[in-house]
Every structure is written in C-alpha cells, then in structure tokens.
Amino acid sequence: MARPLRIEYPGAYYHITSRGNERKAIYKSYRDREKFLGYLETASKRYGAVIHVYCLMTNHYHLLLETPRGNLSQIMRHINGAYTTYFNKKRERAGHLFQGRYRAIVVDADEYAQELSRYIHLNPVRAGMVSRPEEHIWSSYRSYAGKEKKPGWLAVDFVLGYFDNKTSAAQSKYREFVASLIGKDYESPLKKTVASTILGNADFVKKIRKKYLPESKDNRNVPALRKLSERLSLKEIENQAQAVFYNEPKLYRKAALFLSHRYSGRKLKDIGSYFGMAGSAVSQASSRFALQVENDQGLRQRIEQVNKELSL
Hints:
The protein is α+β, with helices and mostly antiparallel strands and 312 residues long. 52% of the residues lie in helices and 10% in strands. It has 2 domains: 12-192, Transposase IS200-like (Alpha-Beta Plaits), CATH 3.30.70.1290; 232-312, Chromosomal Replication Initiator Protein Dnaa, Chain: A, CATH 1.10.1750. The protein contains 15 helices and 5 strands. The radius of gyration is 24 Å and the shape is elongated.
C-alpha cells in the first residue's frame, strides 16, 4: 500500500478521519465514547491540539483539528494509540482497532472551516442515525448551536466567529446554516481535495507545496506528491526554462527535460514523447544534466531561478 503524504507545520488545520478495521465498530458503549472524548481532551492539554469540530459515528470519527505546534503525528499517536489500548484491554483482545493509518487533509481554514464543520455535523443525519444534528449527542454540534455548555477543550469561537461577533447571534445563524442542507443533496467539500492531501484554492495549494514539500528521494515516490506536482504542465516548465535560458536553445531544452523529469510526475514515455526521444533516454539525459548542475554554480543558479518562478 502506498504510504500517505503527511504535511505537518505549526498552525496547520486538518480534517481527520479514522475508520475501524474491516469497517467494524470502534465504539460499543456509552463509556467507549466518553473515553474517546477524554483522549481528545488530553491531546489538547498535553500536546496543544485545538479541537474545533468532532463527530463520533459507529465505525469511524471526524475531526477538524489545529496543530499550533506542528505535531500532528504526536497528537494522533496519542488519540488512536491510547484509545486502542483502552479498547483492547477492556475487551481482552489484541491487534489493530483502526484500519490502516488515519486520513489527514490539510485545510485552508479561512476558505473551508465553515463548510467542513457543517459537513461533519451532518454526518449522523446523512447516515440515517438521526433526523436532526442536535439529536446526536456525540458531536460538537450541540455546543455550536447553544444547546449545551461546551467542554473546556472544544474551540468553537473560530468557526462561530465567521457568523457573528455576538455568541447568541452566531449560534442562531449557525443553526440556520446547518439546517439549510438537511434533507438536500449536496456535494461534500472534501471532493475538492487535491491529491487526497490538500483542501484549498490554487494559491493555498501552491503555498503549501512550496513551503512544506521539499524535494527529497523519500518524497519523490509518494503518489500524492507526484499528483500535486502534476499541476505543472510540461509546456509550463519548458516555457519558463526558455525564459531563463533565452539565448541558449540547446541548454534550455536540457534544463526543461531535467525539471520535467524531477517535478512533473509524468511517465518517462510521456516526457520522452514531448521532447522527441525514447522514454528510456529521459532518465539518462536527466542524470547527465544533474551532474552539470552540481558542478557548475552559474548553471545551478539559473536552475534555481526557474524553480523559483515555477514555485518548485
């Protein structure tokens, strides 16, 4: 199974989901759900996790979570690990409780926090568990709607702040916002996720890719990273290389091929077809040019200029 791409940085927001192994129930009692919420609380206290939204279903859960310390892996090891230990010990079982690794999507919160909170809170309604979100006591909706006092570890002000500065008015408008989609077909905001990894507009994706996805041998083989790179076409890469190496046509094509091989995510045969050569020759030509770049400071600086213009 391909390993997922993990992007971690201080202040990141994530939509988190984790499912039971073989889609089996991960909560079997009232106490199980209480215990899981307790681990959300300790994740907040010990590791600085900011829990904005949650919803516990039967065989999975949803979170909208913020990591001021940039420590998502640590937070999730605590939540899923501690709960698995509790669940297994209580039922005298061993082995995995959750199916594989949790799914974490980096979110442009300003753009999608409202929509995601509604999507998460309407999960029990879509699943036919309840007719209205306030009937499901295992989500943060009742705290958002002013139906109950929120726990100290739950952060509702960020999302409610988009609706009104006054708490009561924000709660009222939020109830209307959520209710407007009850009983209607609507597209999940998660369908706009890029490469199963980032939810945001083009500028947000570009910023994340530039700041938090450095090129490395480990990352090059991550499918999600290759897919993110595919947002650049071979033509875009060639045009920018030509702009930098404008008076050296042979060199700009070598540079364009090298950058296409390294960043485009295209198959060798596709790159070869574009540049008029066999696919098997692409990696060889790219390797030869990489040696030139390594040994020529001026050439390296121009390649870096192309990278900068393309936000690579």
